[in-house]
Known about the structure:
The structure holds 2 protein chains of 2 kinds.
Chain A: H1 24-27, H2 29-41, E1 45-49, E2 58-64, E3 67-73, E4 79-83, E5 98-99, E6 104-105, E7 112-113, E8 119-121, E9 147-151, E10 154-158, H3 166-169, H4 171-176, E11 185-186, E12 192-197, H5 201-209, H6 214-217, E13 230-235, E14 239-244, E15 272-277, E16 281-285, E17 289-299, E18 302-311, H7 318-345, H8 362-381, H9 383-386
Antiparallel strand pairs in A: 1-10, 2-3, 2-5, 3-4, 6-7, 7-8, 9-10, 11-18, 12-18, 13-14, 14-15, 15-16, 16-17, 17-18
Helix pairs in contact in A: 2-8, 5-8
Chain B: H1 3-13, H2 17-30, H3 34-51, H4 55-65
Amino acid sequence: MxxxxxxxxxxxxxxxxxxxxxxAHYIDPSLFEEExxxxxxxxxxxxxxxxxxxxxxxxxxxxxxxxxxxLVRDRHNAVRVFQNTCxxxxxxxxDAPRKIEGAIRCPYHSWCYSTEGRLVSTPHVGGPGQNTHAxxxxxxxxxxxxxxxxxxxxxxxNISGKAVPFEEAFAGILERWKEFDVPMYHGGADxxxxxxxxxxxxxxxxxxxxxxxxxxxxxxxxxxxxLEDHYHIEEPGKFSGQGTHVYRxxxxxxxxxxxxxxxxxxxxxxxxxxxxxxxxxxxxxxRDHMFAIIVDPRSLDHTLETAHIYYAQPxxxxxxxxxxxxxxxxxxxxxxxxxxxxxxxxxxPGFDGGRFSPAMDGPTHLFHDWVAExxxxxxxxxxxxxx
Amino acid sequence: MNDLDTRLLAAHExxxxxxxxxxxxxxxxxxxxxxxxxxxxTHAYVFALELGDPAAPVLRQRLIDMGRETPL
Lengths: 387, 72
C-alpha cells in the first residue's frame, strides 16, 4: 500500500498556532493502518471488560483490529487474552461465546489447550492412536498469549508486547484516581450501551476530551452543570480530559441514591472526572458509579463503542440502575451527530485540520499532539517502512 | 453398520459429547487390535478432556500405559 507520510509539524505547535490532524488521518486507509500499528498495537489498548467473562471457563472470541482474539477466564479466575488460533494449522478455536468446561478443543484436528493456554493433547499426531511425536514439543506450542492488564475490570492489551508496563504508561491517571482503586461491580446487561458509528475512532475520543461542546450538544446539562463548572485535565503526552465541580447524584423516584465508593475524600462529594486512557478507553468516575467506554476501531470510518457502568456494590437498585443507563445513553446519543458529522467534514479538501480554541480546546489538542508524537516516533523507528 | 457405529454417528450429529466419551470408551474396550483400541481411547479421552469429565485422567492413563500418551 502506498504510504501517505503526512506533515504533523502543525499539530505539534503550541495550541495558539496549532492545527488539528490532517484530513488523511481520517479518510486515508494507509494512515488508518499506520495509526493501527503506532497507536493501538504498540500501546496499551482497551479490549473488553472482565464482566464479559464473569465465570471460570467463560470464553468470548473477538476480533480486534482484525486480529482474532480469545478472552478467557481461566481455572484460577484470572482473565487472559490469547490469539484465537490453533498452533497446528491456524484454525480458529472458538467461534462463539461459550463455557469451556474442560479444555479448548480445536474443531479441526482436536488439538486441545487448557484455559491457561497450555497444549495438553495432540491426538493422532504420531499416527493413528499415537498421540505424541518427537518433533511436536507441546511445551513450545501453547496458545500465543497477548500481554494484558486488568484495571477496574477493564481489560487492556498490548499486542506488540513492547509497551512500557501498564502502571508506568498510566501512572498519572492511576495516581489521580487512586481513590477509585476499589472493588467495582458491573451493573449487568442493563448497564451496557452499544453504539455503531460511521466515524473514525479518533473523533469519538476527541469529542470526549473537552467540555466546550456541552452546552450546545447536551443542552440538558445546562440546568445543573454549566460550562463554567467544568475544568480541563491536561497532562501533555500522557492523558487529557475534563472534570466538573457540580456532579449531582441521580435519584430514584423515592429519593434514594446509589451507595458511594468507600473511602472517597470530600473532593468527590461534588466532583466528576472524565479522562481517556489513550488511545481508546474513555472513563468517567463519580462518587457512586464509574463508566468505561471501549472504542473499537473496525475500519477507517466505522467504529463500535461499548459503555459499561460499574457500581460500589453488586446489588444496587435495578430501577435506579436503568434510569442511570438511560441518562448516560441520552448523553452519548447526543454525541453521535457530531462524531459522525466531523467524519463527513474531513472529506472537504480545504479543511486544514482546523484550529483550536486556546481557552477551551486544550484537552483536544493534547490528544491530537499525542497522536502526532506517537506516529512520528513510529515513523522514526523504521517500523513504518517495514510494514 | 453395527449398533455402536449408529449410536456414535448419532452422538456426533447431536454434539452429545458426554455420549461420545462413553461410546468411544466402549468401542475401545471392544476393539480387536491394540491400534484400534488406541484410536478409540484417544477419541474418548479428547472428548472427556473437552468436557472436563472425571474419566479424562483415567483414559489418559490408559493411553500412557500403552505408550501412546505422556503424563501431564
